[in-house]
Amino acid sequence: MCCIAALLMSSGKVFAAYNYIYTGYPPKYCVGNNPGPNSKAPPNKWGFVLFRAYEPLDIFGPYEALYALSRVHKIDISWLAETLDPVTTQPLLAAMNPKNSSSFIGIPPTHSYATAPRDIEILLVPGGLGSRSPYINSTLDYITKSFPKLKYLITVCTGSLVVARTGLLSGKRVTTNKAAFKDVVAVDPSARWIPHARWAVDGKIWSSSGVSAGIDVTLAWISCHYGDDVATMVTNAMEYERHTDSYWDPFAEIWNVTAPSGA
Ligand SMILES: *[C@@H]1O[C@H](CO)[C@@H](O)[C@H](O)[C@H]1NC(C)=O
Ligand SMILES: *[C@@H]1O[C@H](CO)[C@@H](O)[C@H](O)[C@H]1NC(C)=O
Ligand SMILES: *[C@@H]1O[C@H](CO)[C@@H](O)[C@H](O)[C@H]1NC(C)=O
Q1: CATH at 113
Q2: What are the pLDDT digits (tens) for 126-180?
Q3: Is the confidence at residue 261, as pLDDT, over 60?
Q4: How many structural domains comprise the chain?
Q5: Cβ-proximal residues to 60 (8 Å cutoff; 6+ apart), any chain
Q6: SUPFAM superfamilies per the record (predicted)?
Q7: Residue numbers of the domain that contains 169
Q8: 255 in ligand 3 pocket by Cβ < 6 Å?
């Protein structure tokens, strides 16, 4: 065992099964997941799923990175929802807006689930207060139906709770928002929930931790498919400090997350 892992373990943290620290390029999570940075045609047709009371940064963090990438590579993004009405960040229940704030925005979808392009390659699922809603069945159905044809499914934050509700995460190594970890694990305990990760990759499912972690998983995905120099260019354009270690996760400690049995 290497000295860093021993040090982390001796500090009593939950690193036992997660002591792997990799600094090389391409990172292990790239291997077998992509045609490589020299590919002439990386996947570029994205779908962003929208449902009421999504977390804003879950959408706009990844979107910012793709928006920057789209100036140097062709990127198509479809904004998908049940209907073409703008989808608001406002929670349905007044109890979820205890101060009666008016702090919300809506995104107008480009397609309904019924008219969504059939050739979407990467589907991004945000989380947020709406992830637990009983009124997002059309979103769950769309994810279930489109999954077999997707090349990648990326979840941000409790977007993994949304996908867990479809059963698609069963047996998969996935992570989620650490403040909501216990609740999310309970939705599908048969998934292999990773308590200490900024993001995780299992085949075509890429899941990330809370809110801002969507930026890092998107940059990691860009690094795998367009090369790390392009991911670095996008990162610098955003004036962002990117986390390249998928196991970086101080929030596991802050939210007292420990490994669920079977992880
Ligand atoms: C909430 O605020 C709006 C204005 O933003 C106001 O019209 C409405 O009456 C308020 N509702 C309650 C329950 O205070
Ligand atoms: C959503 O689907 C679940 C499971 O099939 C069902 O129990 C629930 O009533 C549905 N919700 C709505 C609002 O139709
Ligand atoms: C985490 O555990 C510590 C020590 O027991 C406690 O002080 C802290 O309030 C806990 N944090 C949360 C978010 O539960």
Answers
A1: 3.40.50.880
A2: 999 999 999 999 999 999 999 999 999 999 999 999 999 999 999 999 999 999 9
A3: no
A4: 1
A5: none
A6: Class I glutamine amidotransferase-like
A7: 3-90+104-254
A8: yes
